[in-house]
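Recall the central idea of this unit: under ordinary conditions, the amino acid sequence of a chain determines the structure it adopts. In this exercise we apply that idea directly, starting from the sequence alone.
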Amino acid sequence: MKYINMIDGVCGSGKTTNILSQINSIEGQMILAFPTKALANEVVARINKDNESRNYISHVDVELYHNDATERAVAKLTAALATSTSKVIVTTHASLTAVGMNALLNPQVQESLSRFTVFADEAPKGLFTADVPIRALKNAFFLEHFEQEDDGWMSMTDYSAVHSIYRDSALLTTAMKNLLWTALAGYKLKKTRVEESHTFKLSGLSHSPLLEIVRYCKKFHVMASNIKDSPFIVAAKEWCNIESVMSDKKLQPDVHRNAHYNTARIQCFSLFEGRASQTRMLEHEQAMYDSTNKAMGENEFLFATNERFNEMSELMLENGVRIPYISSGFNCFAGENVHGGNVGGNEFNLTAEQIKNGFTRVAFIGCARLSPEDKANIYSVEGSQKGERIVDATEISATCESAYQTIMRCKLRDQDDESPITVVFLDDYTMHYCINNYFPEAKIIESGMIKIKKTKTSKADKTREEVQYHKLMGFTQSQTAAAMSKGIATIKRHWN
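Accordingly, the structure predicted from this sequence is:
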């Protein structure tokens, strides 16, 4: 039975460094996969610097699903897996995901993977999605091999025919191939009518193709903070019946580095009570910026937010330096004593003084919540209970863990530094998650800085909200009526 082996370590605990130090003692060939090209390049440079006499292959993709050059790059990586005698192959999550797609359908790729122990740095995504807009259903010629079911779902009726189309048809766009891959992986497609444009959308949802790598490689390790609750681990268990265990002790980071010390110096603020959404952010956007500026005072600070708020936030947060919502790669914000501290500052127009001293203030004012449609699609795969766990893991990872990664870009990453740290969170939910999991001694200075006047909810609104919840959980109208002890007419009235 195959397992996912977990290497659990906080940011800065030396997870990757520890693995690199043990290359010679790890039996057989290795694949090291990183979330970005910059990190992949950095690791290749570190390996070659440590031991020039070793032979390594480095593969860095461009953008995996965007052009022919990328397809050739993936083909090159696949060929290297089959023929290379090198000890280490370095690649990215994106390229290895493409190899995983091939592994589902190609026994030769499966055989090649069996020689390799894989280490994935940071938890990959747990789910794989594909959306294809179609003006007329007749344009999706492959749908003749699918059968229409209730509520827009379509199940595959001829695996061989769809496999042949996927493998051989030159008429398929990249998005169409991704869509068909989800069907070949055993999942249904969803057809939705887009009323505004009088077109259709075909959607596919499946487990991550990297879980096919888990099935066929020699051994698969994933390195991340709080890894056991990541979407990758949860989806593996719930949808693929792949269990997870801790990696050997020697592969875990040093216990003395695997914690954040002196977290009492962290002063926390939250903008909203409870759990916020991007809708709430839009409704109170000016107050969000004003409160952030108030908490930070006249000091320079780092901040990350959702893409839709990038332009306005840069205008309103005058002392802020915006960094990506998903933070990985060189850390040029924590001062010169931190690895990478003097690299990459030009990308963010940092001054020499900022690079030297680092930042002691950081704001994470963003969130990533799944849409009702996405949740309903997840719940439909194998029932609401398993779906709920995947939804929770996905949203926590995309918001709370992203907040933690952003916070760890500042001088908090320097364990020898004693500077007070100021952090602004979007909401109480994210703040308490980070405190409970990583910063137990942090002090909450102000919670819910933005005061929102609460309005009374009518009985009809409450009924509609409850109906929509049951619909989201995959209940039929009859099941919802029974669960709520309401008449079917009431349920129908609030269904759409």
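Confidence is low (pLDDT under 50) at residues 53-69.
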